[in-house]
Write a structure and sequence with these properties.
Blueprint: E1 2-4, E2 7-10, H1 13-25, E3 30-36, H2 37-40, H3 44-52, E4 56-62, E5 78-82, E6 89-93, E7 97-101, H4 104-107, E8 115-118, H5 121-138, E9 140-144, E10 152-154, H6 157-169, E11 174-182, E12 188-199, E13 215-220, E14 223-228, E15 237-246
Parallel strand pairs: 3-4, 4-5, 14-15
Antiparallel strand pairs: 1-2, 2-8, 3-6, 5-9, 6-7, 7-8, 10-15, 11-12, 11-15, 12-13, 13-14
Length: about 250
Amino acid sequence: MMAQQGLETYRTRPAVIDAVRSLIDGADESVTLAVPKSALVTFAPQLRAAIERDVLVLVLVHGETSASIPAYDDIATAVRTIGHGITPLLVTADVKRGLTGHVRVLTQSDGDYRATRFDNENLAHDEFTMFLGTHWLMGTERYVASVGSFPQTFSAFEFAVLTAALALRDEIPITATAQVVSTADRTETTISGRVVNVRQSLVYPASSSNPAERSLTVETDDGRVTVGGSGATKERYECREITLYRADN
């Protein structure tokens, strides 16, 4: 292992496995994971625990293999698959920390392969964007968790977007109450109203041609407003926390 400030490079399979497990264990809001099918079972206990903590877990598995894989329904929020192993090893936790490297570091004990763990929000954001904007889009949707019961409160905006998209897909009317910040003047406020539109490409059917776009449109008493996640610029508000309710309860 070689270390620099905020970076650790691993050259052995056991060290990489431990690093990935640690990242999943430390996630409070979201996990993205791209691994070969044959390696997925290695992280199943950590993924299962993350689901039990109500963490958003997006798993992309790739490569043709006869290896058995665990059932998706208790280890992920959503799963996509790619037939050929063209995706690197990619992991992010809470869009704050992550790991990336050659995928063969998990599948071959010999060879000069390596992976680097980083504790840097800028790098994590870049990896998160690459995961969703490139590799996730190439995958085929294999599993998505059920919407579940409402109300549900989210600090991870992507999780709220995914849940809202599934609710509207299932023709379940929902409303939202969100603590937000104006993208114009940074004023903090609370908005409430019916969710009338979702822009996203996390689940089918995609409603945005831009994979980086994830937003909700809420019909408030003052008219329709758009809400985006952390760093939002095109939307009227940046979301800090949001609660979704079933409108017909």
